[in-house]
Amino acid sequence: MNKDNGYKSGFISIIGRPNVGKSTFLNKVVGQKIAIMSDKPQTTRNKVQGVLTLDDSQMVFIDTPGIHKPKHRLGDFMMKVAQNTLKEVDLVLFMVNAEEGYGRGEEFIIEKLQSIHTPVFLVINKIDLVHPDQLLKMIDGYKEKLNFKEIVPISALEGNNIEKLLEQIKVYLPEGPQYYPADQVTDHPERFIISELIREKALHLTREEIPHSLAVLIEKIERNDEKDTVHVMATIIVERDSQKGIVIGKQGSMLKEVGKRARLDIENLLGSKVFLELWVKVQKDWRNRASHLRDYGFREDEY
Ligand SMILES: Nc1nc2c(ncn2[C@@H]2O[C@H](COP(=O)(O)OP(=O)(O)OP(=O)(O)O)[C@@H](O)[C@H]2O)c(=O)[nH]1
């Protein structure tokens, strides 16, 4: 499918009380391809939990910490972050357990959902455990609580109705780019976006002078959980010596500006303070040797 024409992509937030089956669902949908940036819970920013890439669409599932944790130490702050996230994503999946009634936890989340305009699906999980009559009653009950765009009963464990849910998600995604490479299996999907951010800044600032003959290889992404910092080391690859001079600029001024702008964007993306170390290298035939590199986020082993 032509990616400029009709390709759909978007960010999807899965929320719900603990134990409703969010991880089981994600595992079923994205299999191995789960992105783990850090083992520790993020305090401010959303983690990408999984990416599903289909021929005509890409779904990026993100974590929304805090929405169901009012008693968290960072309670109010987390809540604000969570709510902002829910406003920014393209779709929210509110997952509930078919076996459980409507309780305080659900009510709490519904209240938050009432104040946003993002489309919300109700996903009723674990339908393998209940009688269809019970399910129907539940659906009727929830219909009165919120204007859900879709209500989809599934069994994440047994795989029931998952395909249908994905079809419906696709309907609500906007047209957009493929954010991640199709075969993203690395535990750092951010690698790809970070390389794109640096490349974008470098191309923008050197416009006209270096038309697209520029690649970015991410050498290292190292997270320090204690200090909440991330060290990124990247090499900008150009084809000619003259281009190297342009990218570096007078006394390094251009490279400094590229680095500064890229760093701000990367900090935004990761929600952590970032140290960005940039190098420039001439590699005359990088395009011929590895024209596919761009699509893979320039993994060192492929280079
Ligand atoms: N019978 C049944 N059990 C399920 C289904 N989906 C998940 N479970 C079980 O429910 C339990 C909780 O599932 P998780 O996927 O860990 O739930 P979670 O929402 O990610 O939980 P937190 O990480 O605590 O937020 C596990 O024992 C799953 O095997 C389902 O469709 N049917």
From TrEMBL:
State the residue spans of region: G5. 154-156
Q: Topology relative to the membrane, per the entry?
A: Peripheral membrane protein
Q: Where in the cell is it found?
A: Cytoplasm; Cell membrane
Residues binding GTP, per UniProt: 16-23, 63-67, 125-128
Q: Which Pfam families match?
A: KH_2 (PF07650), MMR_HSR1 (PF01926)
Domain KH type-2 residue range list: 206-284
G4 as annotated region, ranges: 125-128
**Region (G2), start-end ranges:** 42-46
- For region G3, the annotated ranges are 63-66
Question: What range(s) does the Era-type G domain occupy?
Answer: 8-175
Region (G1) residue ranges read 16-23
Keyword set for this entry?
Answer: Cell membrane, Cytoplasm, GTP-binding, Membrane, Nucleotide-binding, Ribosome biogenesis, RNA-binding, rRNA-binding
What PANTHER family would the database entry show?
A: GTPASE ERA, GTPASE ERA, MITOCHONDRIAL
Self-association state and partner proteins as the record states: Monomer.
Q: What does this protein do?
A: An essential GTPase that binds both GDP and GTP, with rapid nucleotide exchange. Plays a role in 16S rRNA processing and 30S ribosomal subunit biogenesis and possibly also in cell cycle regulation and energy metabolism.
Q: What family name appears in the similarity comment?
A: Belongs to the TRAFAC class TrmE-Era-EngA-EngB-Septin-like GTPase superfamily. Era GTPase family.
> What name does UniProt use for this protein?
GTPase Era
